[in-house]
Design brief:
The chain is α/β, with parallel strands linked by helices. It has a single domain, classed as Vaccinia Virus protein VP39 (Rossmann fold). Helix content is 35%, strand content 23%. It has 11 helices and 11 strands. The strands form 2 sheets. Strands 6-5-4-7-8-11-10 form a 7-stranded mixed sheet, with helices on both faces. A 4-stranded antiparallel sheet has the order 1-2-3-9, with no helix packed on it. α4 links the parallel β4 and β5. The chain is globular, with a radius of gyration of 19 Å.
């Protein structure tokens, strides 16, 4: 078998047919490749490495936060739901929401506290079982295989999901099928058209499948727009935020703190320019 055959991602996840070229961002499995059409970056990892790295998500504890993290989740959830109200024209209390890749259900719990009728889908059996045992309505498996009714949700959320997918187009088409008319698909993923990416390149741990299990596909606003168009969605809004030049532990602590102050000051201009490294996207059916 050739090296090309051994790659888990052997075609552009967005559906382009223009081929790839190697970048200067190199990992043990090889340099990241960039689509010649949409600029999507993909890993050259093998299928075995991919599935081995995904095992970390089967922890029954899932991602339920505690303490300050729980407070931050509540604030973040309110911010997301406020934006959903704005773009959907529907009140929180009237929303039927599906969180895909929900783990043990932290976002579902937070959304329900604001009156949302929230359900979830989780492929990993451990956290899905934990969610079910806590009384949440969660389907264990992949969305494509569950066959939920057509036009049954007002909102579908995909938070830190797309970067794990070899074929996001099929998932988008299924989301389109089960969303109501004028329904919203809400995405959170990394932005490779960011100042963080331009500065950190291979130091950005977001790209490392060993640091972040299953990260194989990396988006930018152009590739997101093309993916939306090819699956029947209309791009409503893209918001980016956060700038990072060094991770904690990369440099002496005093220098890290000084540089973090600078990067924090750049958060607002990065958001205005679309150059933050976290990207939140709203697509309408």
């Amino acid at each position: 078998m050739s090296d090309t055959d051994q790659r888990y991602v052997d075609a552009c996840p967005i559906g382009c047919e223009s081929g790839f070229h190697n970048t200067d961002i190199v990992f043990p499995e090889g340099p990241l490749r960039r689509c010649n059409n949409c600029g999507q970056l993909v890993s050259q990892c093998s299928e075995q490495l991919y599935w081995n790295s995904m095992k970390e998500f089967d922890d029954p504890k899932g991602t339920l936060p505690t303490g300050k993290a729980a407070y931050r989740l509540t604030r973040h959830t309110k911010r997301i739901l406020d934006e959903i109200e704005l773009f959907s024209g529907k009140k929180k209390s009237g929303l039927h929401l599906l969180d895909v890749g929900c783990s043990s259900g932290p976002f579902i719990v937070a959304a329900k506290n604001f009156g949302v009728e929230a359900e979830g889908v989780e492929p990993s059996s451990g956290p899905a079982k934990t969610a079910l045992q806590s009384g949440l309505k969660v389907y264990q498996g992949y969305l494509d295989d569950i066959n939920l009714p057509e036009e049954s949700f007002d909102v579908i959320t995909l938070f830190e999901v797309l970067e794990h997918l070899k074929d996001p187009l099929s998932l988008f088409k299924e989301c389109h099928r089960i969303l109501c008319s004028d329904g919203l698909l809400v995405i959170r993923t990394g932005n490779t058209d960011s100042w963080t990416f331009q500065y950190m390149k291979d130091r950005w741990k977001y790209f490392s499948i060993r640091e972040h299990g299953g990260h194989i596909s990396f988006f930018n606003p152009v590739s997101i727009r093309k993916l939306a168009e090819r699956s029947g969605f209309t791009l409503t809004y893209i918001k980016t935020h956060r700038v990072c030049f060094y991770e904690r532990g990369d440099i002496p602590f005093i220098y890290y703190r000084l540089i973090k102050i600078v990067s924090d000051l750049l958060n607002a201009p990065a958001a205005l320019c679309g150059k933050g490294h976290e990207m939140r996207v709203y697509l309408k059916k």
